[in-house]
Specification:
elongated; 2 domains; two-stranded parallel sheet; 28% strand; 345 residues; alpha+beta; Jelly Rolls; 5 helices
């Protein structure tokens, strides 16, 4: 369903007309809710404001509580800062995740799909303020307490920016942390490798941190995944790889899977040994790879799998070698999830 945005106070286009509409607290509440919605989609490092708080001091205006309406200037600062320039690589892992978190220009005007930035636009980027008002920043750059009145244009620019910032593209590594081997069906095996000599196989299972744990929930929640999403796989030898969405919960650290069971210590068996039976996994697609060159799968099956993941399904992937040959193949992968916020988000 296409993204849309509605605003309670305004004209038919959702804008405040100077001299017609009064700016209300509810308008600021509404904007704060939409700004926080986008902040919760991106990873944020922990923040320490202790140096800005002392007896008789105001709290710095960059502080934005999770559910608290911020000062008006703060709304603008958080769009150009935390949202358009989110932190990456902060969840750990090798490689670090997330690798990229970008917002994409959604309008079909020749710039569609370019990364939205709040600074000078480079190749493949579009400047938010050039689109908004033909300048390099918001109208009335600094709003000063007791000096600068809040005008209808300030609300209207924030509303327009929110309407444009709704299409995201996150790029995340897949950590292949478990292997399953047909010759030793009850033993957890190699990670980050696949093999298939025609009779025996090694398959690899990994995960992506699409939705990190924590409160409030962060990550691409309540979004519509787009078919432009992609799964990229790299192998160190020529081969053909089949990729699956692994539906079973894997206990990576204390009960890694085997060929026969996805949780051996709990005696929980795959429907079909090897993890590709009904209820075990669903096929995403296959890709023929040239050694050390990434290949990509981008189709409706992947979009459906990613949609299931952001809606609460396991965020696990299973890879197998579909062709046959003698060598064991080392593999790596990453997933690019492109999405729109759900309607009116």
């Amino acid at each position: 369903m296409a993204y849309s945005a509605t605003w309670e106070n305004g004209n038919a286009q959702g804008r405040l007309d100077a001299g017609v509409h009064f700016a209300c607290l509810s308008d600021a509440d509404e904007l704060a809710e939409r700004v926080n919605r986008r902040r919760r989609l991106v990873y944020q490092y922990g923040q320490d404001f202790s140096s800005a708080i002392y007896s008789g001091a105001w709290v710095e205006n960059d502080l934005l509580a999770e559910e608290t309406v911020p000062p008006f200037t703060n709304l603008r600062a958080n769009i150009t800062g935390t949202i358009l320039e989110p932190a990456v690589g902060g969840l750990g892992g090798t490689p670090a995740t997330p690798q990229d978190m970008d917002w994409l220009w959604p309008v079909g005007d020749g710039d569609q799909g370019k990364i939205i930035v709040g600074s000078a636009a480079g190749e493949g980027e579009v400047n938010l303020f050039q689109k908004l008002n033909g300048t390099t920043y918001w109208t009335d750059t600094n709003l000063l307490p007791g000096q600068t009145g809040v005008r209808a244009v300030h609300f209207n620019e924030l509303r327009q920016a929110i309407e444009w910032i709704h299409r995201g593209r996150w790029r995340l590594p897949i950590y292949f942390s478990a292997g399953i081997f047909s010759i030793l069906p009850d033993t957890p095996w190699l990670d980050q490798a696949v093999a298939n000599n025609g009779s025996d196989e090694v398959r690899s299972i990994g995960f992506a941190l699409l939705v990190p744990s924590g409160t409030p929930i962060r990550g691409p929640i309540d979004v519509d995944v787009r078919n432009a999403s992609a799964l990229s796989i790299t192998a160190d030898k020529d081969c053909t790889i089949q990729a699956y969405h692994c539906l079973r919960p894997i206990v990576w650290d204390t009960d890694p899977p085997s060929w026969n069971e996805y949780q051996p210590n709990a005696n929980k068996a795959w429907t079909t040994a090897g993890g590709v039976g009904e209820g075990d996994s669903t096929l995403i697609g296959s890709v023929a790879l040239t050694a050390d060159e990434p290949g990509s799968i981008s189709n409706s099956a992947l979009a459906s799998a990613l949609q299931a993941m952001v809606d609460g399904a396991e965020t696990n992937f299973l890879l197998r070698r579909a062709d046959t040959g003698s060598p064991t193949i080392n593999i790596s992968g990453e997933v690019t999830i492109e999405f729109d916020l759900d309607p009116d988000g």
